[in-house]
Amino acid sequence: MRNRFDQQLALLNVELVTMGALCEEALVYATRALFQREEGMITRAEEAEAQIDQKEKDIENLCMKLLLQQQPVARDLRIISSALKMISDMERIGDQAADIAEIVKYMEDHRIPGPDHLREMSDFAAGMVTASINSFVNKDLELAKKVILDDDVVDDYFEKVKSDLIAEIAQAGQTDDPVRNGQFYLDLLMIAKYIERIGDHATNIAEWVVYSITGAHPEETN
């Protein structure tokens, strides 16, 4: 019975890694559509989001089987309950990547203002998603704690991007088409907010990793 349970736990890890990889892909596709204007990236982001939704259902079903059929002990129960919480955050990451792609679909093809804070913020948030999933699979408590601390970095990036875009919006008011130019920068601000939320969800995942390993939420260990 335990061998069967361990096999299903191993499958749970594989499924979580797969779902996490899909989240990374969705975000990469969305941001490539934004920064490189690569053809087909919007569609691929939307397809990845649909796969993420299906993977969430598959993992939910697996977790229910583990809970109902195997009667897990305390530590195993923490792992399964954490996985259920994590997939909710991963599903939201997929949604927000698709939301970014949807905005890009209708954006004017303007220059994205420098410095490259928005691009750096996107890359950093994607790295947090990867690290949060890796921390769960490898039971890496220190990596999970690092992801939690990295949330402040994403927040700082958002403030920088917001300042950049406020300045651009002010200048847009002096152009020949202030409404259209202003709308472009407001779209970028919305994208930055979605990326900040992706960082928040990666942080949530890392907090559940801490719980699955220690039995305590991070705020309880401070």
Q: How far apart are the first and last residues' alpha carbons, in Å?
A: 38 Å
Rg from alpha-carbon coordinates: 19 Å
Biggest beta sheet attributes: none
Write down the overall geometry.
elongated
Number of strands: 0
Q: Which stretches are poorly predicted, pLDDT < 50 over at least 5 residues? A: none
By helix and strand content, what is the structural category? mainly alpha
Level of helix content? over 70%
Mean pLDDT: 88
Number of helical elements: 7
Fraction in beta strands: under 5%
Secondary-structure element order, N to C: HHHHHHH
Could you explain how this protein is built, in words?
By secondary structure, the chain is an all-alpha fold. 86% of the residues lie in helices and 0% in strands.
Task: Please give a quick description of this structure.
This protein is mainly α. It is built from seven helices and no strands.
Task: Using brief descriptors, characterize the structure shown.
222 residues; single chain; mainly alpha
Task: Set out the fold topology.
Layout: H1 2-35, H2 41-70, H3 74-105, H4 117-137, H5 141-172, H6 178-214, H7 218-221
